[in-house]
Amino acid sequence: MSDIRIAIVGCGGITLQNHIPGIAMCGEAKVTALCDANASTLEQARSQTGVTVTSTDYHEIVEREDVDAVIIATPNLYHGPIAHAAIKAGKHVLCEKPIAMSYGEASQMAEAADAAGVRHMTAFTYRFVPAMRYLSHLVRDGFLGDPYHFRCCRLQDWGSRDLGWRQESGLAGTGELGDMLSHRIDFAHLLYGPMTRLCAHLKRFVADRQGHASDLDDWSAILADFTNGATGVLESSKLATGRNESWKSQDYLEINGSAGSVVFLTGHWNQLQLGRPGGEGLETIQIPESFWTWPGSPRDPNQGDPLVTFRYDQAFEFLDAIRQQRDCVPSFWDGARALQVMDAAVLSARESRWVTLD
Ligand SMILES: NC(=O)c1ccc[n+]([C@@H]2O[C@H](COP(=O)([O-])OP(=O)(O)OC[C@H]3O[C@@H](n4cnc5c(N)ncnc54)[C@H](O)[C@@H]3O)[C@@H](O)[C@H]2O)c1
């Protein structure tokens, strides 16, 4: 089988940390073109990867005949226009989250991709955490009984440092809501299905980050009802002083039902804690090895730091869906559903009221 030829648009942090090593792991795929609006970032990516086809104009890259698929990893504002250009050129698209600036824009992207018959995927990376995959398996298997609660708490310490485009509404849309909570909104959808209504609070504590004005939330919270009858409490902060960042910080998820509870904690990529009716406390379990990698992924879970390398399975899923001509998991529709909740959260916070979701 010939290699799948991939163009990457946006060569910043997540491309270097995740997309490039993920593709390298997969085999039968190669990065053939790179684009970044910043010439020096582009040059750095060129020298790091050896990919010689480069441009600061995404049109030149996504329209190339020697490109089959496009990965979009730019600030959020540009996701939609780049995705539409790639879809128009007949390319498969993996787009970073949040995939658009609004639900309306995201559903147009999903509709265009479906109409063009190309594969489309949202980079909800946390779906690939082995413990999270086992957690969703337990829910599907009926471990919870009647679902009562979904609860998540993401606490990081980003202090008052300059966050670049992430702190500007014109480029990012939302702050902590889209940056971190969007992953957990998607996971809530995966486990419990859609929300029926929500009430949200978004707050900015730091308006000046090293001389760069911020007009976005650095803390966000949602209280929700789900169609399955459960309640949800979702919280995320960049200002949990002393909590550190990324996998060294607090990432906690707990679900409760009539027959059991399941708890996920940061750093425990292959463990969960279970609670059972009448139990005296939570019991820690190791998740089965069959869940350590995404089905079919060539990744060796014993190689590298598993708290980082689970992310590479995302590239495998994208490429495998292209080869098998099947839908990607998660798709643009999952990205759109998360944006529908985000839009409702922004409206709720602005008008200080509950918002009903269709
Ligand atoms: N899935 C995850 O876990 C995860 C993690 C981090 C970031 N992200 C997402 O990835 C995206 C990028 O984040 P990042 O941390 O890599 O940001 P970054 O700032 O490090 O990189 C973005 C790059 O895009 C380039 N760029 C800006 N406008 C462009 C344009 N019009 N055309 C081409 N290039 C352009 C910038 O020069 C920069 O190099 C964001 O949507 C973010 O939310 C997802």
Account of the 3D structure:
The chain has 358 residues and is an alpha/beta fold. It has 2 domains: 4-125 and 312-330, NAD(P)-binding Rossmann-like Domain (Rossmann fold); 128-302 and 339-356, Dihydrodipicolinate Reductase, domain 2, CATH 3.30.360. Helices cover 34% and strands 24% of the residues. The strands form 3 sheets. Strands 16-15-14-13-7-12-11-8-17 form a 9-stranded mixed beta sheet. A 6-stranded parallel beta sheet has the order 3-2-1-4-5-6, sandwiched between helices. A hairpin with a 4-residue loop joins strand 11 and strand 12. Helix 5 (103-116) packs antiparallel against helix 11. The radius of gyration is 20 Å and the shape is globular. The termini are far apart. The model has no long low-confidence stretch (mean pLDDT 97). The structure holds nicotinamide-adenine-dinucleotide (NAD).
CATH architectural designation of the largest domain = 2-Layer Sandwich
Quickly count the helices. Answer: 11
CATH class of the largest domain: Alpha Beta
- Stretches where pLDDT falls below 50 for ≥5 residues? none
In sequence order, what are the helices and strands, one letter per element? Answer: EHEHEHEHEHEHEHHEEEEEEEEEHHHE
The structure class reads alpha/beta
Beta fraction: 15-25%
| DSSP summary, beta strand count | 17
Largest sheet: 9 strands, mixed
The largest sheet has its strands arranged as 16-15-14-13-7-12-11-8-17
Overall domain count: 2
The average pLDDT is 97
- The CATH topology of the largest domain turns out to be Dihydrodipicolinate Reductase, domain 2
As a percent range, the share of helical residues equals 25-40%
Terminal Cα span: 44 Å
Q: Specify the overall morphology.
A: globular
Please state the CA-atom Rg, rounded to the nearest Å: 20 Å
